[in-house]
Specification:
Blueprint lengths: L1 E5 L3 H12 L3 E6 L13 E3 L4 H11 L4 E4 L6 H14 L3 E4 L11 E3 L2 H8 L4 E5 L6 H7 L3 E6 L11 E5 L6 H10 L4 E5 L8 H9 L2 E5 L9 E3 L2 H12 L4
Parallel strand pairs: 1-2, 1-4, 2-3, 4-5, 5-12, 6-11, 7-8, 7-10, 8-9, 10-11
Helix pairs in contact: 1-8, 2-3, 4-5, 6-7
């Protein structure tokens, strides 16, 4: 039996390690957007599949018995493609997704990055922590604002002159986030509901400093796809789904 893990998250790496320890044949797939990704144990492929048809063909050609979609909560494109391709090939699919955040204060929840940009425009010092792929949605509304942008990878394009780019990789500390916000005069934090503990420190720091928090809601998950929140549950599912019939 062979399990395909659509990865790029800490949960995906943990799942690969757990299945490897169980002796399960697996392959992890990464999108390839990060230059030096943290690699899981076992075989890894990097790059896209070429849409639904490409992924469906990959499942067939590589004898994939089960798929676990453990991508980022905002990787809506690959999640939709996985649902369609697995349905076409009759391959079991599970979504492994960390729980979302719950309000620690009076957060402002919005649907989409455009709505977040509109809401943030009423602030004076904005900390933009939504990832480099979303920055284009904020340039128009916030082009003349004082904005601090944090990214993991270097940007390959210019940003407005009033913006400051900070390159750093988590996990982050509350103390460090507090200092970043104070040093840059932040009164508004814009983030997305990634969930997990890796980047939660910014929310705690914002609460301590009275910084307004704007959170982009997660996109809707594909209909009909089973979901779990723990690696242990995903391991149990994979072992059951990929096991040969008795």
């Amino acid at each position: 039996m062979t399990v395909l893990i659509l990865g790029g998250t800490g949960e995906a790496r943990a799942l690969a390690g757990a299945l490897h320890d169980q002796g399960v044949d697996l392959v992890s797939s990464l999108a390839g957007r990060v230059r030096n990704p943290r690699l899981p144990v076992g075989p890894v492929r990097i790059g896209g599949f070429g849409g639904v048809d490409g992924l469906a063909n990959y499942l067939r050609d590589n004898g994939i018995d089960a798929v676990v979609d453990a991508t980022h909560p905002f990787a809506a494109g690959i999640s939709a493609n996985a649902a369609a391709a697995c349905a076409h090939r009759h391959v079991p699919l599970l979504r492994l997704q960390r729980p979302g955040w719950t309000d620690d204060g009076p957060w402002i929840w919005v649907d989409g990055h455009d709505a977040a940009a509109t809401e943030a425009a009423t602030g004076e010092g904005i900390f933009l922590s939504t990832g480099r792929q979303t920055l284009g949605r904020f340039v128009g509304p916030l082009g003349g604002h004082r904005v601090t942008v944090r990214v993991v990878e270097p940007l390959d394009h210019e940003v407005p002159a009033s913006w400051t780019v900070v390159q750093a990789r988590g996990p982050y500390t509350v103390e460090g986030e507090r200092k970043l916000m104070r040093d840059n005069g932040v009164d508004t934090l814009v983030t997305k509901d990634s969930g997990g503990e890796l980047t939660r420190a910014k929310l705690a720091a914002a609460g301590e400093l009275g910084v307004r928090v704007i959170v982009v809601r997660r996109p809707a998950a594909p209909a009909g796809v089973a979901s779990v929140a723990s690696v242990a549950d995903a391991v149990d599912w994979a072992l059951r789904s990929a096991a040969p019939p008795i």
